[in-house]
Structures are given as C-alpha cells and as structure tokens.
Amino acid sequence: MVNAVLWTALSLAAAGVQGAMIPRAQKAPGSLSLADLVRDSYEVRGHMKQITDKIDPKVLPFAEARLKNLKQVNTLQEVLKEVQLDKQEEKKRDCFFLRNMMNPQGVKVSMDITAYADRPDHVNGGDQDESWEITQSVAKIDTERIGWSTDQSSEVGGSVSAGGSAGIGPFQASLEATVYGNTRAATGKNGEASNSGESKQDTKWTKPCPKKSTCRVVTWTYTRKISGTCLLVPIGDKTCLTPNEKGGNFSLATDFTYKDLSSAFFVQAVKQAKSGPQWQDLKMHDVSSIDSKFTSPCSFSYVLRLENGEPVRAQALISEPLPRDVPKAVGWRGEGAKKACKLATKGWWWQPGGWFLVPESDKGSGDWEQHDDWLEPAGRESKCPDDNNNKARRAPASAANDDAPPKENLKQPAKNKLVKVDIGFNEVPKLVKQLQETKNKGFVEAPKKA
C-alpha cells in the first residue's frame, strides 16, 4: 500500500497545475465538430506545424514535492516505515524532495485545438453575400481537464482526476510546482476564473458570409500534449545537504549515503551507486540497472499562452454550402466492396455513410466527400439496397466510363473541400515570435482574476 499511496498522492496533486486533453468542442451540422472543421484547414495545420517546430521536444515538464510539504506526516517513517532517519538526517529532511518526471525514451508530443462558437449557425439563403463585422472573441477552456493525467491501473485501478491536492486515507501531499521551460507554476493555481476558463478579447474584422451557405464564427485555442512514462524519483539538493560543496539536484540512487531512503523507491535495494545521464537539471541514476517502484503511463497537457497569460487564439468565419438537391438512385455499379450507387445526374455517386461524389461540372469537387446533412438519394432502398460487403470508399473520380464506379484509392483521407475557414484574427505569429525569444514553451500561468 505504500507504493499506491505515494504514487497516487503525488499524481493527484499534480493534476491541478496544467494538463490533460480537452474534448473536442460543440458539434456543427452533420457529424463533424467545430474542432474538426478548423483542424481540416490547411492554414490551421500549417500554424500547428509552425508552433511544433519552435518547441524543443527534448525539454520535458516535471512536478516536484518537497518532503517537508507532505501534510499529516511528521516523519518519513510514517510513509516509508522501513526507513529510519537519524537525528542528523532528520534535520536535513528539507533537502529531499520527490519528482514526478517523464522518461525521455518513448515520449510522444501532439497538438489539438478547442473550438467555441462566438456566433451560432446562420443560414444565408439569399443570392448575395452578407458582410459580417466581428468585434469580440470568446475562448473557453475546460479547466477540469487541465493537469497531469496518470494511468494508475497497476496501483489503484483508476486514473487521476484534477485537483490542487488530494489524499488517500490519512495521507495527503501537495506539490510545490510543475516546472516546464522557464515557468514554475504553483500547485493548484492554474489561474482560470471558473471551470469554463472563459477569456474574452476585443477583435475587429469583417468577412463575407457566402450566399446559400451556413455560416458561423468560431474561436479556437491550442492545446499541447506530452505523453510518456512517468517515474517517481527521490532527489537530493546537494547544495542544501552539503553547503560547502558545489552541486545541483541528484537522484538519491547515485549516492550510496542515502541507500536506505532511495531503496524505498526502487524495486531492488541500491547496493551500489550508479550514475546515469543528465536529465535537464538532474543528475539521474542509471535507469537501465535500477527500476523504480513507481512508474506509470502519463501525459501532461497545457493550453498554449502568450506571455501575458492569455490563451493563444484564432478566430474565423466558417462557411459551408447549403445541402444540395440529391439526384435519384439508379442502381449499384461495380462488384463486391468496390460497388458505388450511381445517381440519375451524370457524374453523381453515393455510398453508405453519407458519402457523395459530385463532378466538377456540377459545381462539385470531383472527389468523395462526406455530407451527413444531405438527404439519401430517393429510391435508394430499392435501387441500391443495403449490402454488408459494400463500405464507404474514399476514391477520386477516375471512372473509365459514366456507368462504372470510381476507381479505388484510399491513400489520402477525404476532406470536406466545400467548407471554408476564413481566418480574421490570429495570434499564432505572436506565439512563434515568443517561442523564438524565450524558453517558456508556451507554458505560462493564466492571469490572476480580480
């Protein structure tokens, strides 16, 4: 139980700082969410690549808790009963701390967006474009899911939830900080005003809502996620322990003096100190020869912010044409899984799942597109009855003749090319400049609200 208590308490306490993926935002018409519509924009994907290229993936976040801050624990033996500290070491208890950190091996980094509709869907059914003037952007962040996330299935059978500090039984712990880049964020102080993390900002731009289209104004923010394997390492501050000697932070497994204390955190007793690589500011032990008792898959996610603490945002008018009138079904063409339903208008095809191919000659893209908001072809059930062997294809229009279904080519995922993301406000250039000039990795504490 010591293992589970220590790991759980530290991981739960870390959850309140920053991190964990945010669910994709509200749904647009059809099955695509607002985040999907934004993410599919080539321009937005280019912005995400710009950001990724400016952040060094070798620099990793960590959370630490000094032993002096362990609440309801007067001495270490209450947690680590096999460890007995003599009086001299007891005085030095403030020099020891625990660090929740990621093993650099196997780390994965990803980025996603959270989208919010500033202006609800509006149908422009007329024959003229409408001019929209946008004056405000609202970014919403789900602070309930920002923090460390750790899979503790091997220890306590569940995953952590967010919170500034948490406890199991009589034991409670709180972290001093999560450290990433040049930012040290205090535990439990993510700076958000509420659970929604709403942040408003004045903007001023004008864009057209195209004729015969559904339009909406969307603000989005960027979330970066770092995933890997976390381990809990006991660390000593050499300057604190030996004031007359120079030194920095070191894993206790690298110093045989603290073998009893360090052995409580490792699978095998530390019989011989073994130094390993330098992990940022820490002289690490040889992880290939000493296994930690406290390891777990973990992730750390945070909202990218400017130096003033406000989330990096962009805002756009997103438009998509109103649903087309769908021609009647004629019948299946092709064989087996390559079958497609031919429609009455030349060049039109349909497949299950709301997939349509509209030729360029009829103001289409000439490629398969998913339109869940379009009606099924009339007569589909009788002319193109359900067939378990037929699945939605993603193929270009390259039929040999008008009566043959398009050839198969699944190398590229289908995109809804008719959706237009017209960006009017964008703070990514500010962030890119900030990342070039600082080391904060976009990890900045949110401004404190009055």
Automatic annotation (TrEMBL):
Key words of the record: Signal
Endpoints of the signal sequence: 1-19
UniProt superkingdom: Eukaryota
Biased composition (Basic and acidic residues): 360-390
Region of interest called Disordered, as start-end residue ranges on this chain: 186-206, 360-416
Protein name: Uncharacterized protein
Source organism: Moelleriella libera RCEF 2490
